[in-house]
Each structure stands twice: as C-alpha cells, then as structure tokens.
Amino acid sequence: MCQFKNINSMSFAEYKELIEHGDTAIIFLGHDSMFPVSIQQGGQTQTKYGVIRHSSDLIGKKYGSKVTCSKGGWVYILYPTPELWTMNLPHRTQILYSTDISIITMMLELKPGSVVCESGTGSGSLSHAIIRTVAPTGHLYTVEFHQQRAEKAMEEFQQHKVSHLVTVKNQDVCKEGFGVSDIADAVFLDIPSPWEAIRHAKSALKSEDQHLVNFLLLRRLMVVESALSHPALSKSREHA
Ligand SMILES: C[S@@+](CC[C@H](N)C(=O)[O-])C[C@H]1O[C@@H](n2cnc3c(N)ncnc32)[C@H](O)[C@@H]1O
Q1: Fewer CB near the terminus (10 Å): N or C of the chain?
Q2: pLDDT confidence of 57, banded at 50, 70, 90?
Q3: Is 82's C-beta closer than 6 angstroms to any atom of ligand 1?
Q4: How many angstroms separate the Cα of 3 from the Cα of each of 11, 12, 15, 17?
Q5: 144 annotated as a binding-site residue
Q6: Can you give the pTM of this predicted structure?
C-alpha cells in the first residue's frame, strides 16, 4: 500500500503530493503516448503540444495536474507508479507486464515485509513492482549476469529512491545463486534455463512455506520435466 506524503523526496515505493526538482514524473499525453522525465530546475521538455517549462509549469504543482504547453495543448503530470514505469521504461530486454506481474505477486503471496529473490533483473519491470509491494520492511535480491543491465538497474533504483529495498548482484544465478541462504519467502525465475537455478532457489528459500514460480512454467505452460522431477522441488510449493 502506498503511503501519502508531503515530503521532498520522490520514491516509487511511496506517494507524495507535490512535484519537485529531482523527481521522475510521467508526462501523460494519452493512453498510447506518455514518457518519463527527470524534473530539473530550469529544465524544459518538448511535446507535440509545445514546451513544458519545469520551473514555472511543474515544480510546486500537484501530481495529477493538467498542464498547458506552450502551443496551447495540455498534458497530465503523473506520479510514477511501477505500473506506469512498466509502460514507459527503457527496454533492455523483454519485460513482464502488469497483468502477469499481478498474477506473479498473487502466486508468490507477496506483501509488505516479504523477502524475495528474482533473476534476471532484465529491464527492472518486475523488480519495481516487487519492491513497491514488499516495502517498507521487505527486500528484493535480484541477480543479473549482464553487467550493463545490472549497473543500469542499480542506477534506476537509486534515481527512484528504492535502493535501500533492493540488492542487485551481477552474477550467473545458475552458477553462483542469489548470494543469500535461508532468507527468502519467494523466488521468481525469468531466465531461459530456470531448472539450472533450482538448487540455488532451494538454498535461498526459508525452510518452510515458501513459493517458487518460474516464468516458463507460468506463462508458456511448458512442463519442464527436469525441474519438476528435481528433488529440490519437494521443498517448495509449485504453482505452475
Ligand atoms: C527476460 S529478461 C527479464 C525481464 C524482467 N523480468 C523484467 O520484467 O524486466 C531475462 C534476463 O535474465 C538475464 N539472465 C539470463 N540468464 C541468466 C543467468 N543464468 N543469471 C543471471 N541472469 C540471467 C538476462 O541477461 C536478461 O536480462
């Protein structure tokens, strides 16, 4: 659940009322046309309706405001929820969308305080949603073996003021696992060969009542025989 705040720090895990310098905001022109901007004193953003001047048009206004651009057209300035981020993020990989994310969140029974392991981080679409759900006391451990993707994800988590809720590890989850043991309430795998990470999922999970879902099973309904017959699964509940 989002907290309502009048503070000067925007976070994807909370909500605040007023637009300020340093925020990431969503410029909404329509359902099929929106994009994120970093709000800067003196900054400006070009749209098809003309320029938006950050200092005079945005800073100090309420999120959700209708703002008139220099050519007379108008846009809405929206607070950046994980759902809006999923629709607007820079794609570095294929991503999970909100319909699947809501099912994953339900199947993993995520809630504030949950500790979650996922791999790969990819473009961070699922990661942002998990972080918002487990905040303020939970944590996400996310593993990505592509160095630039891992670095970019860390950068975005910092910009979005959620870096205290997430640990990014740049390593191969199939070889080195999640870097934690006996700590996770849930594990989610969105990698090409999830069966190779099952033993690491087992070691990351708390010993009882945990959840393991992998995207291949969830979405494509593929029966990954080697994974299903793996002894590690006897310790987890399979939801596919
Ligand atoms: C489909 S993308 C994940 C998308 C992510 N769920 C999202 O919603 O943005 C798969 C990612 O897994 C990473 N990956 C694949 N195999 C991996 C492995 N063995 N260890 C760590 N990362 C891996 C890839 O580099 C890629 O970034």
Answers
A1: N
A2: very high
A3: no
A4: 10, 11, 6, 11
A5: yes
A6: 0.86
